[in-house]
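Tokens in:
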């Protein structure tokens, strides 16, 4: 499975690659991942300078445990191929590609990464933000078997623009999109990250969206402001009660009298081996967060 990294991806913060001060500040933020954006956050006349600045800042390092991702411009723009060439030898774990529509786009991007000499473990993440991509989600996800594809990031702002779907507080119109993307990702071992919350000053809406994404099985949520990091980290982290329950399940299965059993009773509930696997994942996530 491609999604084998145990490090959490609760908070995935977009940072404009044109803003050196913001990039420097990112070195001290508690985000699990940083997405340095060369696309939407950078004006056309600033893209070349932003690309050079980003590569320089990445080479300086100092980002500690944070996963580093760079969002390129599309291959159909004047900047996309130059972005890829510049980032090929930069210390990024993933390249995030926007505006993909179909499985052929994944093949083309992955082959170009190979041709340019990206590290073998450098992953391809893609934005799911067009109607065509939503309709082709299963075929796109299946490309993980033969390409560098390793992650989905939802782009609901662009999808809303292209479809007219309303971004209400409960995101009812986008529920089928979210569930479809999650199922396709899980069937193919991909990371899946929720879209951004535009309401920076609406803490209740941010928490509601984060809880919805966690309940839907997402790995984390993409963010547009540092103030969103702490609340989203809290939502996606295992609670004390979840950790205690997980430890009780593991301890019960480890007890000599339960060795070899497929189902046992823990705290008045019947639990099976699948619950044991879930419990171990909860503990592993909590340990990964605590060890940073």
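Residues out:
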């Amino acid at each position: 499975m491609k999604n084998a990294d145990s490090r959490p991806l609760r908070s995935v913060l977009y940072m404009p690659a044109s803003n050196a001060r913001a990039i420097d500040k990112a070195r001290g933020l508690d985000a699990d991942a940083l997405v340095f954006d060369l696309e939407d956050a950078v004006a056309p006349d600033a893209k070349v300078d932003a690309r050079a600045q980003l590569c320089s800042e990445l080479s300086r390092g100092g980002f500690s445990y944070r996963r580093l991702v760079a969002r390129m411009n599309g291959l159909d723009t004047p900047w996309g191929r130059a972005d890829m060439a510049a980032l090929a030898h930069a210390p990024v774990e993933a390249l995030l590609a926007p505006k993909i529509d179909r499985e052929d786009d994944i093949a083309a991007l992955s082959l170009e990464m190979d041709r340019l000499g990206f590290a073998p473990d450098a992953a391809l993440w893609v934005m799911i933000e067009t109607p065509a991509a939503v309709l082709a989600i299963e075929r796109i996800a299946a490309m993980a078997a033969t390409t560098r594809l390793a992650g989905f990031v939802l782009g609901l702002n662009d999808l809303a623009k292209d479809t007219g779907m309303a971004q209400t507080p409960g995101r009812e119109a986008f529920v089928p999109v979210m569930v479809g993307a999650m199922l396709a990702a899980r069937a193919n071992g991909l990371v899946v990250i929720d879209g951004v919350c535009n309401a920076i000053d609406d803490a209740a809406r941010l928490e509601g969206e984060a809880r919805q994404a966690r309940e839907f099985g997402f790995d984390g949520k993409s963010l547009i402001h540092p103030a969103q990091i702490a609340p989203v980290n809290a939502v996606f982290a295992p609670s004390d009660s979840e950790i205690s329950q997980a430890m009780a399940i593991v301890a019960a299965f480890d007890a000599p009298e339960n060795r070899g059993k497929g189902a046992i009773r823990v705290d008045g509930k019947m639990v099976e081996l699948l619950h044991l696997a879930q419990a171990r994942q909860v503990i592993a996530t909590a340990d990964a967060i605590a060890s940073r």
